[in-house]
Amino acid sequence: MATTSSVSEAFAPAKDAPLSERDKYWIVVQKVQAGQVGAFDALVQKYREHIFSVLYNMTGNREDASDLTQETFIKAFQAIGRFRGKSAFYTWLYRIGINTTMSFLKKNSRRRFINYETINEEVATAEIIERLTAKNRTEKGVLVRELQEKLNESLQKLSLKHRTVVILHEIEGLEHAEIAEITQTSVGTVRSRLHYAKQQLQAELKDYLR
Amino acid sequence: MMPKSNPADPNEINVEDLLRLKRSEKPDSAFWDQFDRELHQRMLQTLVKKEPWYLQLWRGCSGRLPQATALATAALVATVLAVRPALLGTLQFSDRAAGTVLASAAQQDALTLADLPQEVTDAADYQIDAIFVSDALSVAQDAGYERDFGMDVIQVAVNDTADYSADSALARAAFGQTGMASLVF
């Protein structure tokens, strides 16, 4: 497992000139391609939570998301020699993860069950939870669990392509252009899918909206 | 049409606000420790390269296995050729053995028939290597029925029209049959 020092070493640039985030990770990729296999750990440490988050919200299952995240990194490791840096590394990685998950979901469309992730404590103190608790006059813990269940159910009701753009934009915070690059569609397609998906979600979550 | 969010209203809750709560669904550090271990193990496994199935099949066809198979086949053929005369002799012996069994069955039957009245046994007809069928009882009883011997039953000498369809002891007694045919089949 990569330690903090090894991660820093992996990102140490050859020159003192300031580098963008994209350039930093491109240097790490080049090190891996040059044979420094240990540098791949730095990429894993950097992106594993993001990839897991996307795949968890796509599948709604914690264990499946863990397996698929590992599979994503293994595929990336095997194919990294062919990565030419035309897109950002994380874009390429997201694309591998999403394609792997879509194949998995299509193959296992009937055998599905939900397995939720634990909610971080900070949610309980979020302002929005305070407002919802006051509005619904519900105990906070109960409300958080209900809301988590309702959110996940609503997401799972969306089609895969709509669910993906919502996750990448609203949860991962990616821009439309980045999402278009990941999903290999146009910005217009991303915007229309996002609009449609939010309409569907609004209908599902109307009890929590005002 | 989805209502636009009003930044002036602090109390408004929209879909985006709810979805952002999902950023808090995160696994703990123990999960990531296990994740790292499993990932490293799987990555090491990928380093052991496996040949595609068609290459494995090609190697199997040109390797030691087909050589061993050919040798085993040759040995089997040689063994069959060597023991063939002995095998043929065994088959003949089996026929004679079957005849011995039938003959002993006939002897048993003869003991049974010995219990019958003299006038009944005098009318019986026996063959050496067949189940003895006596229609003496049926003649004595004047059953007056036709017995039909099918091609797939043991041939008996008496009255070519015996019927083996009924296999119960009572029927055998009525038909004058020993019932040994059912045991042979």
Walkthrough of the structure:
The complex is a heterodimer of chains A (about 210) and B (about 180). With about 210 residues, chain A is mostly helical. Chain A contains ten helices and no strands. In chain A, α3 (about 40-60) packs antiparallel against α4, α3 (about 40-60) packs across α5 (about 90-105) and α3 (about 40-60) packs across α8 (about 160-170). Chain B has helices spanning about 15-20, 30-45, 55-60, 65-115, 120, 135-140, 170-175, 180-185. The interface between A and B is large, with 43 and 31 residues.
Secondary structure: elements and pairs:
The complex is a heterodimer of chains A (210) and B (185).
Chain A: H1 4-11, H2 21-33, H3 40-59, H4 62-79, H5 89-107, H6 127-136, H7 140-157, H8 160-171, H9 176-183, H10 187-204
Helix pairs in contact in A: 3-4, 3-5, 3-8, 4-5, 5-9, 8-10, 9-10
Chain B: H1 15-20, H2 29-47, H3 53-61, H4 64-114, H5 118-122, H6 136-141, H7 169-175, H8 180-184
Please give the number of β-strands of chain B. 0
Shape assignment of chain B: rod-shaped
Unreliable runs of chain B, pLDDT <50, ≥5 residues? 1-6, 97-106, 109-113, 120-169, 175-185
Give the CA-CA distance, first to last residue of chain A.
Answer: 46 Å
Helix content of chain B: 55-70%
What is the helix/strand order of chain B? HHHHHHHH
Subunit arrangement of the protein? heterodimer
Give the second-level CATH assignment, the architecture of the domain at 1-117 in chain A: Orthogonal Bundle
- Major sheet attributes of chain A: none
CATH superfamily of the domain at 1-117 in chain A: RNA polymerase sigma factor, region 2, helix turn helix motif
Please tally the helical runs of chain A, counting DSSP H or I stretches of 4 or more residues: 10
Question: Helix and strand string of chain A, N-terminal first?
Answer: HHHHHHHHHH
Distance between the termini of chain B: 85 Å
The biggest chain-chain interface is: A-B, 43 and 31 residues
CATH topology of the domain at 1-117 in chain A: Rna Polymerase Sigma Factor, Chain: A
> Which range does the strand content of chain A fall in?
under 5%
